[in-house]
Amino acid sequence: MNQIISPVAAPKIGFVSLGCPKALTDSELILTQLRAEGYDTSKTFAGADLVIVNTCGFIDDAVRESLDTIGEALAKNGKVIVTGCLGAKGGATSSAAGSLVREMHPSVLAVTGPHATQEVMDAVHLHVPKPHDPFIDLVPASLSKIGVKLTPKHYAYLKISEGCNHRCTFCIIPSMRGDLVSRPIGDVLNEARALFESGVKELLVISQDTSAYGVDVKYRTGFWDGKPIKTRMFDLVAALGELAKAHGAWVRLHYVYPYPHVDEVLPLMAEGLILPYLDVPLQHAHPDVLKRMKRPANGEKNMERILRWRETCPDIVIRSTFIAGFPGETEAEFQYLLDFMAEARIDRAGCFAYSPVEGATANALDGALPTEVRDERRARFMAVAEQVSIDKLRSRVGATMQVLIDSAPGLGRKGGVGRTYADAPEIDGTVRLLPPQKASKVLKVGEFTKAKIVATEGHDLVGMSV
Ligand code: SF4
Questions:
Q1: Is pLDDT above 80 for 406?
Q2: pLDDT 10s digits, 315-343
Q3: Cα–Cα distance list, 439 to 118, 302, 413, 442, 445 (Å)
Q4: What are the DSSP E strand ranges found in 48-147?
Q5: Which residues of 144-237 form beta strands (DSSP E)?
Q6: How far is the CA of 398 from the centre of ligand 1 (A)?
Q7: Which DSSP symbol is given to 283?
Q8: Least trusted range by pLDDT, from 38-52, 339-353, 412-426, 440-454
Q9: To 5 degrees, how large is the angle CA 166–CA 151–CA 116?
Q10: Minimal CB count within 10 Å: which of 135, 205, 240, 450?
Q11: What is the pLDDT, as a whole number, of residue 94?
Q12: Judging by DSSP bridges, how do beta strands 40-42 and 12-17 pair with one another?
């Protein structure tokens, strides 16, 4: 007798991903596992069997946003699992990880810290049992190497390590994510190759400290493609550059500290193997402030290093973030930062007015500055930074640049939006592409086009595809 099996709808999980690219890659791992086990996703809280909120706990605004989202998910659904950095924080009544979330939202089903795919899956299984389906109990081959991606098809983040060995006084990330753990270099390169093979045209290397890659494993020799390769920033970047070259793609480095060994990757940029772009979170320029911040590479001569980088690779674009009004910052120290900014001509600079983060050791430093002073210094910094950025953008008018297309409705008949090597997605500027003059010219998302830069628009460029 034939047995009729009626299809059972897969349980649906709602998912909210908040926070930085590192949290995004955690979300991708969890979503990949959910998909592999046969769970479906729901676009709404109400339509889900359970909701997972991946939180951010870095600054007060992010904490508020995370707590509000958990509250909304509880109100609309009721069954909520919390993961991510906020899940690692203690609360007012207990310093145990997770207490802050539990104090604010006692009815959440489970709380985990960041990078906890298995714990999250265990909690999901407990509350929404795993669907049994012999066809989906195996991870599809296409998913097993690269997993579910939350970025558009043409760019992807590649996380090379977790955690951080530094103890910057304004930061609580090490207490949430732990010490540095570098991923095996063979795994990282396999993931990169799978991403390029799946159509990724821009790979964004991320971590808490990309320059520290391999320190925790004493730069041990790993294997990739049957050959030995050291777990070291230079070796990784060189191999990524070769892979990218074979696929006509870009590699962009984020979160690099100005250590002497970073100088070694500049020739790779000058050769065109990786993008001449470095995201270097400097946070300040004055040596005494950097020491109070306990910043990595605080003893290095950053100005000399940046000038040398520009000599080796004149096209280099440097992005950085700064903090104005750190406890004890004198007017002279702040002026030193402004002078540094004007001389180093950081292409893309962001600045935060210092704001205490709960649990950070900087809160105990003497010399806290009034909010008005911190805000005023931030505004003064941004005035200098914006002028540098505007001058730099203007100097691009007339140049022909390669542009990666992010959006091009109707094959670009009405134009599109893209980015040059100088612009990382989400954080930097864009190029507004004008409608092509030739009717035969089409613009497609995820493809490169050459564009003549014809004007600037605030922090963006305007270009004509040629
Ligand atoms: S380098 Fe400093 S700011 Fe960055 S994650 Fe480590 S401790 Fe935090």
A1: yes
A2: 999 999 999 999 999 999 999 999 999 99
A3: 52, 49, 8, 8, 18
A4: 50-55, 80-84, 110-111
A5: 155-159, 161-162, 181-182, 202-206, 221-224, 227-230
A6: 39
A7: B
A8: 38-52
A9: 50
A10: 135
A11: 78
A12: parallel
C-alpha closest to that of 400 among 423, 430, 420, 428:
420
Question: Residue 159: what residue type?
Answer: K
Nearest ligand 1 atom to the CA of 208 is 5
Using the mean position of ligand 1's atoms as its centre, give its distance from the Cα of residue 321 in Å: 13
Residue of 300 and 5 predicted with greater confidence? 300
Mean pLDDT of 174-202: 93
Atom number, ligand 1, closest to the C-alpha of residue 209: 1
Average pLDDT, the chain: 90
Residue (of 356, 345, 301) closest to 323 by Cα position: 356
| Residue 101 to residues 64, 67, 91, Cα–Cα distance (Å) | 11, 7, 8
CA angle, corner 422, sides to 187 and 283, nearest 5?
A: 80
Residue 148 has pLDDT above 70, yes or no: yes
Q: Is 208 in the pocket of ligand 1 (CB under 6 A)?
A: yes
- Ligand 1 centroid from CA 429, angstroms: 25
Regarding pTM above 0.70, the answer is yes
Give the three-state DSSP class for 443: coil
Count CB-CB contacts under 10 A for residue 202. 25
- Distance between CA 215 and CA 403 in Å, rounded? 35
- Helix (H) or strand (E) segment spanning residue 433: strand 431-433
Residue 311 token pair: 């000599």
16 pocket-lining for ligand 1 (C-beta < 6 Å): no
pLDDT > 70 in the chain, percent: 95
Distance spanning both ends of the chain, measured CA to CA? 67
DSSP state of 409: G
For residues 262 and 209, the answer to whether their CB atoms sit within 8 Å is no
Q: What is the pLDDT of residues 75-134, one digit of tens each?
A: 999 999 999 999 988 887 877 788 899 899 999 999 998 888 888 988 888 888 877 544
CA separation for the pair 290, 303 (Å, rounded): 14
Judge whether residue 345 has pLDDT over 90.
yes
Return d(Cα 58, Cα 39) in angstroms, integer.
30
What is the whole-number distance in angstroms between the Cα of residue 279 and the centre of ligand 1? 14
